[in-house]
TrEMBL record:
Coiled coil (UniProt feature): 33-151
Record-given protein name: DUF2959 domain-containing protein
Superkingdom of the source species: Bacteria
UniProt source species: Candidatus Litorirhabdus singularis
Signal peptide range in chain numbering: 1-24
């Protein structure tokens, strides 16, 4: 119960901190809409970095499969470095997506509340329409972001399995065993990269639509 209470208190503190941040930003002319666009840009950039990192890990796996003599310890260390860098890249992407969700929720809640303050029926209807359009575009973006995020976990798990197996079996037979598994992880990484590129393109489209309107 104490742990649950601590988690709840931490959650409330985080919400309070975010609210204070948004209020402070508003006072200097930076609105939640601007923060949302900025955070989508950050997420897009972190996905681009993650894409490069997973490609690098894929290339290192290929080097392992093509191994033809030398020091397997060096190969293991290189692959382990790629795995750890991939974990860091994935965590950064997830953090950026969470930040987008936070400000989007605050933006849409505020927008809905302010719509009720209109006395002009035309303005009120127009604002409702724009809110629905923005929410629709955002939901499409979030779905794409979440889809690419979900593809990272099985790739990371497979990378970890390969790293651990090689660590415990630094010999030619281990490489032969990993060759059998390479096809699936190679396919998964390729699919992940393709999904990330779709998400990056959708982020660009969302940013453009927000700036245009």
């Amino acid at each position: 119960m104490k742990k649950l209470g601590l988690l709840i208190a931490t959650a409330f503190l985080l919400v309070a901190c975010q609210s204070a941040y948004y209020e402070a930003a508003e006072k200097v002319g930076v609105h939640k809409r601007d923060i949302l666009v900025d955070r989508v840009e950050n997420a897009r950039d972190s996905q681009a970095d993650a894409e490069e990192q997973f490609q690098s890990a894929q290339e290192q796996l290929l080097a392992l499969i093509d191994f033809d003599g030398g020091d397997l310890q060096d190969v293991y260390e290189d692959l382990n470095d790629e795995y750890e860098d991939s974990v860091d890249a994935a965590e950064e992407v997830s953090s950026r997506i969470a930040a987008i969700e936070d400000v989007a929720e605050a933006l849409f809640d505020e927008w809905e509340e302010e719509i009720e303050e209109y006395t002009n029926a035309t303005f009120k209807a127009d604002s409702k329409r724009k809110l629905r359009e923005t929410q629709s575009r955002y939901n499409g973006l979030l779905k794409s972001l979440k889809k690419s995020e979900a593809r990272m976990d099985p790739v990371l798990a497979a990378l970890k399995d390969n790293v651990l197996y090689l660590k415990h079996n630094l010999n030619a037979s281990a490489v032969a065993s990993l060759k059998v598994e390479f096809g699936k992880i190679d396919k998964d990484i390729t699919a992940l990269i393709a999904e990330m590129r779709k998400s990056i393109a959708q982020s660009d489209a969302f940013i453009e639509s927000m700036q245009a309107s």
